[in-house]
Design a protein that fits this description.
single chain, alpha/beta, Rossmann fold, 2 domains, six-stranded parallel beta sheet, six-stranded mixed beta sheet
């Protein structure tokens, strides 16, 4: 159906439409019919998908999982893809550039991409903008929230049951709502099995400062933490180095990081391939609707993976508790605590 716009003649109008007709009143409103844009049509030819990440895709963590999702889109749908590290003030410019180049889908991998995506989407109605976290959305913009809190809750259960010091810790890079929410789930998981557990939280404020991550981790260990989890992105090597130096146990996050350090007992993992491909298919078929989507264990998007090389370090009863809770999450029978943002 054509879109109907009404233009009222007035002294401040930037455009005057003069249409002659017989028998009409000289001052009546004039209805002008304008053809709609083509946003409702299926994508013709190869789908074009761009991915913006906060760090290098070789980080064995947050950016790497998104890149695997992008590769899956390319392999399964034959899409034309591009990836770019883009942060801070450069986000909007990168989004606009890809949109101007005719990209059908632009994914910003992180909470910080949400506001720029929603704003930029208004100028490019034929491009869909999706961030991997955030609460804003529009007609052709939205957020794709991974329910990583599920994996962090399970890690918290292990830490709460296995800690000998009675103190555990969470080390973050940027202090953003999405990371805060995973830390809340870790704490809730620990307290669900050990209400008296002490939980330390530290943020470095940076994505890629290895020295800062190492120092924050050492500080938490000095305060008594013997099980630690992180959200340090590209600075993860500093986190692991500190845990190895002090011989405490820790968890991997986002990626399966069980092989990155001999102190990692398990990892809370995001599996982006299936959700990313499903999203791209909806863009291709023009069935996508802007909104906030939550994908978790029941969707095959989240997992917790024990480090088989260190399974003997975890008490059998702890592993049983965690496995039972994980099954409940997979079946949708347990809702892990999470913040709304």
């Amino acid at each position: 159906m054509a879109v109907m716009y009404r233009f009222l003649l007035g002294g401040l109008a930037a455009l005057v439409l003069m249409i002659g007709c017989s028998g009409g009143a000289p001052n009546e409103e004039t209805t002008v019919t304008i053809e709609p844009d083509l946003r409702g049509q299926k994508v013709e030819g190869a789908l074009k998908v761009a991915l913006l990440t906060p760090g290098n895709v070789n980080d064995s963590g947050w950016s790497a999982i998104a890149n695997r999702g992008l590769i899956a889109i390319k392999d399964e749908l034959g899409a034309e893809t591009s990836q770019q590290v883009t942060k801070d003030a450069g986000i909007k410019d990168a989004m606009r550039s890809f949109a101007q180049d005719g990209y059908n889908l632009i994914i910003g991998h992180g909470f910080e991409y949400n506001d720029p995506a929603v704003e930029t989407a208004k100028d490019f109605p034929k491009t869909v903008f999706v961030s991997s976290s955030g609460g804003g959305f529009g007609e052709n913009a939205g957020a794709f929230r991974f329910y990583l809190e599920e994996g962090f809750f399970l890690a918290g259960m292990i830490a709460g049951k296995e800690s000998k010091s009675g103190t555990i810790a969470m080390i973050g890079g940027p202090d953003v709502p999405s990371i805060r929410s995973t830390f809340k789930a870790f704490e809730e998981g620990a307290k669900s099995v050990n209400p008296s557990i002490k939980v330390i939280t530290k943020f470095t404020g940076k994505n890629d400062d290895v020295a800062a991550a190492q120092q924050a981790t050492l500080q938490a260990i000095d305060e008594g933490a013997d099980f630690l989890i992180h959200q340090t992105n590209n600075a993860v090597s500093g986190f692991f180095k500190a845990c190895e130096e002090r011989k405490v146990w820790c968890f991997g996050a986002n990626e399966d990081q069980n092989g990155m350090s001999p102190r990692v007992v398990g990892s809370a993992v995001i599996k982006a391939e299936k959700p990313f491909v499903n999203l791209a298919k909806r863009i291709q078929d023009s069935t996508y609707k802007g909104g906030i989507e939550l994908v978790g264990m029941k969707d095959g998007a989240i997992d917790f993976i024990f480090n088989t090389a260190l399974i003997g370090e975890i008490a059998p009863e702890t592993k049983t508790l965690v496995s039972e809770k994980q099954l409940m999450m997979t079946e949708g029978a347990f809702a892990t605590p999470k913040d709304e943002f």
